[in-house]
Structure formats: C-alpha cells, structure tokens
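Course exercise 7: structure representation. Students receive a sequence record and must write out the corresponding structure in token form. The form below is the worked example handed out in class, using Pyridoxamine 5'-phosphate oxidase family protein (227 residues). Read each field label carefully; the graders check that inputs and outputs are placed in the correct fields and that the protein name is recorded exactly as given.

STUDENT ID: A-19
EXERCISE PROTEIN: Pyridoxamine 5'-phosphate oxidase family protein
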Amino acid sequence: MTSTMPAAPARRIRRLPDRQTTDRFALHELLDSELVGHLAVAVDGVPVVVPMGYARVDGHVVVHGSTGGGFALRAASARLPVAFSVTALDGLVYARSLFDSSMNYRSATIQGVLEPVPADETDDALLALSERLMPGRTAEVRGMRRKEVAATRVLRLALDDVVMKQRSGGPSEEPDDGEDHTNWAGVVPLERRWGTPVPSGLTPEGTPVPDSVIALTTRSPRSDILG
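STUDENT ANSWER:
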C-alpha cells in the first residue's frame, strides 16, 4: 500500500487547496480516531444521510445493519454510489475578526459502492467493528448466536476514492496586519473524555465495573494543542 492517495481531478479541492492532503497515513489516523461517520445516498431521487458507527479494516470502512431493510442495504443491493464522511473537530481558532476565525479539523469523504463482506470474513469484520467501538468487551460477554449473525448484514466501502482536508495551527496574523494585537487571539483545543459509567436498571448493586469499561474511562483523552 502506498503512502499517498490518488486525487482525481473532479475531487480536487478548489477552495484553499493547500488544506487537502493525500497522506494515506493521515487518513488512517483520522478514521481510527473517530467512532461515527455519515453515510449518504440518493434513494428514489431523495438524498438521505444517516450517522453510523464504523471501523476501518485495512483498506475498507466497515459498517453493518439489519438484513430486514434500511437504505444502506438497498443501496448495496442496487450498487448505488454512496458517500461516507468522517470529521474530527480539534479546536476553535479565535482570530481578531469573525471573518478570519476558523476551526482546526480533519475531514474525509469516501465515495464508492458498498459491497457485502464475504461470508467467510463476516465474523472477523463484526469482531473488528465491536473491538473498535468497545475495546475488550468481546471477551466479557457471550458470543454472537448464529441467528444474530444471520440477521446482520456487514458492508464495506473501499478507501479508493477519498478526499481529505485538514487545518491546524493558530489564526492567520502578521505583525503589520493592522489589527489590534492587544485583543486576544489563539486556539481553544477541543478535548473529549468518557464520563462515569452508569449501570443498567437490572445490574445488581455492587456488580464490578468490567475491565473494558475501566480501560475506556481511564484512557488519557486526546489533547492536541495546535498552533
């Protein structure tokens, strides 16, 4: 796998093109840091966007849904083109004017056709998805029953047609830009952390919090102070 992603002419960013990146490792870092993406498709001429949990498995984004229906499954069956978008907000950029204020972010939009994961790879794909969303939980609960697997359809989207854009650093400023530099400007980084676990209503009092939950809630939050 090469370290760069090809950029088709139709996908090149025209507005602030210097913020586009073709670094495949930056794409993987973004996809591996987030949990939710937005899947878009036109169904019967109507655009539909649905947030979905996902996981990156090698060169694909993997999602899942019920075999009972859903626009994603219909799109997969009809091989309709879809778009899947993931965004990470890293901070707010406070400039000395609202016009120059901005955000620090990383975003990627993947276009292509959803394909069913082959039957002999389904279990591994579901395991990868579970471990991405709830690391370590698989070892603490019962395994999936065959009827549950049969009721679940696993789809994947190749990371072949991707546009990624990002911004980092502080506000644009120059010593002679005519602004009042006594007015504060800078970056407010966004930090996210998990809260205190809340047991379900049927969990007996005193039941120990499992290791997977402890590991999740005590993990150091990502804190990128950019600029």
